[in-house]
Amino acid sequence: MPLPSRIGRLRPPVLCLVVSKSDAKDGNIEELVKNAVAGGVDLVQLRDHTLSAGELVDLARSLKTAIGNKGRLVVNDRADVALAVEGIGLHLPENGLPMRDAKHITSRYEILGRSVHSVAAARAAAADGAEYVIVGTIYKSGSHPDGKPVGVGIIEELTKDSSFPVLAIGGITVDNVAEVINAGAAGVAVKSAITEAEDPKAAAEALNKALADAWAEHAAALKAAGDASVTDKAVEDAAKAAEEASAKAS
Q1: What is the C-alpha separation between 11 and 247, in angstroms, rounded?
Q2: CB atoms inside a 10 Å sphere around CB 41
Q3: If you placed Cys at 2, which of 20, 163, 170, 173 could pair as Cys (CB 3.0 to 4.6 Å)?
């Protein structure tokens, strides 16, 4: 099992936050995102089907400013918004715009991803040019209570012979992050774990620390098992990142 590759300029493990405008209890979604990014979120997905194109463009621009150079922003399913706002990527639903068409619309420098729910859909997305996929629902999720959890087996199947980045979504907590990383995930995507927390920054810090610790242990275990794709530097970098995440969360 090789270590996952980068998502654009984002080095695994990636912590992705999925947000909509209504997620901010006080109405200030920019402040929520700013705090989450300060806590370790490095990819933000704007997913809001209640806003008009113009409203989404305005919100995407303000979130891009809130994130600054500490992370990346992608917009869900709206290629027009991704085209209108310079410097943001596009995340597509499983049955959304074909990846080849999305590539014609968006900048070649921006991130393109897709949500999937099966091994076949994930492999098709990778073959079509997606830079990552978000797969789930992995565990029982409060935001999707009717969704049937698929477990980490789908991650293991997708990553056993591939470094293609897979992010796990659905019921992700600090207690199960290590399981999805050990299965081969390049990171996780969350929503309520941060947006519904009393302190979004602290919640992001805790998740980031759990991710970094799990990544360091996973990289070291692969190296010890003789995986030639895992270099000494990769293990050293992972250990350093874990130390930094621990210091931030303390």
Answers
A1: 19
A2: 28
A3: 163
